[in-house]
Design brief:
single chain; 325 residues; alpha/beta; Rossmann fold; 2 domains; 8-stranded mixed beta sheet; 12 helices; 8 strands; 16% strand
Length: 325
């Protein structure tokens, strides 16, 4: 198993105004002359972290940014002018600012959605793709994670998650959170709901699901605004179908050049994003230069086998890109 690279600090960072409302935090790490790697974080709403930097060799020129409404971007939690397409175009604006013409795009979970959306929108910019924990933003995935199908695996955790909801709200928790929780004016009560939303998903990401005690300990590491932003943005995006037409990614992968190297990585025991969608994406890419990697892990990029495969595949694809340039 490959370990993470040593901690690294950005050599450049800033806030890029993209609208009158939103400014996007971006940073560059590693070697300014190295091959550019653009990282899409998950969520929606998770933001990028110091740990995310460590998945990439310091020989690369790694660009990380926080999507609209989360992390160090401003304003936090803002839902206005905040859709999937806005995030995709923001990434291109960052590359334009940095005068970067070609990149390897990397993303996990929601970040895998954005990586493919970016490649579909800007195929001439993408030199390769590494995507982990595949999420396509489709209704079947939304029904699974947010409407109770996941409860078949974790009934006790689901019981806790829905304990704050009235009986009619338990039939469709996602709709209740969107229609009743997000507009709540009582801040303390709203915080309780958003805390439970964030904890329910987070505790099932790893190969070994977290106990209540362990989950609370992990949640304590997050500041209150981050917890609220993650839940708010996830609810907003998921309820709105991630602002994508049905099967948008599967129906548009033909726009991505067939010759660029693509790596899909998915955990055998991923209970957050079911593996069927990784399989469907792999099938849709059958005429492309693609490799499907199944690993002994859950959804989390921190699970040892997943972590090692991400690092090795990023390195492999960068070498392949260099040999074809």
């Amino acid at each position: 198993m490959k370990d993470l690279y040593p901690p690294i600090k950005p050599y450049a960072h800033g806030l890029l105004p993209v609208t009158d409302k939103h400014s996007i935090y971006w940073e560059e790490c590693g070697n300014p002359k190295g091959f550019p790697v653009l990282f899409f974080h998950g969520g929606p709403g998770a933001g990028s972290s110091e740990k995310d930097r460590r998945y990439f060799s310091p020989q690369f020129r790694t660009i990380l940014f926080d999507q609209r409404g989360c992390g160090r971007s401003r304003p936090v939690g803002c839902l206005k002018e905040n859709t999937t397409w806005h995030l995709v175009h923001d990434a291109k604006k960052i590359l334009d600012k940095l005068q970067i013409e070609k990149v390897l795009v990397v993303g996990g979970s929601w970040g895998s959605t954005l990586a493919f959306m970016f490649a579909i929108a800007y195929p001439h910019v993408v030199a390769g793709i590494v995507a982990r924990g595949i999420y396509l933003g489709e209704n079947s995935e939304i029904d699974y994670s947010a409407k109770g199908l996941m409860a078949q695996h974790f009934p006790k955790a689901w019981e806790r998650f829905t304990s704050l909801l009235p009986s009619d709200g338990k039939k469709n928790p996602l709709a209740y959170f969107y229609k009743h929780v997000l507009p709540m004016r009582k801040k303390e009560r709203k915080k309780k709901f958003l805390y439970e939303w964030t904890m329910f998903e987070g505790r099932h990401c790893s190969l070994q699901p977290s106990s209540d005690k362990a989950a609370k300990k992990e949640m304590a590491k997050l500041n209150r605004k981050d917890v609220e932003a993650i839940a708010t943005l996830e609810i907003y995006y998921i309820y709105n179908g991630c602002f994508l037409k049905p099967k948008f990614i599967l129906n548009n992968v033909h726009r991505i050049p067939r010759y660029i190297p693509i790596s899909l990585i998915h955990g055998y025991y991923d209970v957050v994003c079911p593996g069927i969608n990784a399989h469907r994406l792999h099938s849709a890419l059958s005429k492309h230069n693609v490799r499907m990697n199944w690993v002994f892990s859950g959804h989390s990029k921190s699970d040892p086998e997943m972590r090692g495969k991400i690092i090795s595949e990023v390195n492999r694809i960068c070498r392949e890109i260099k040999t074809t340039q």
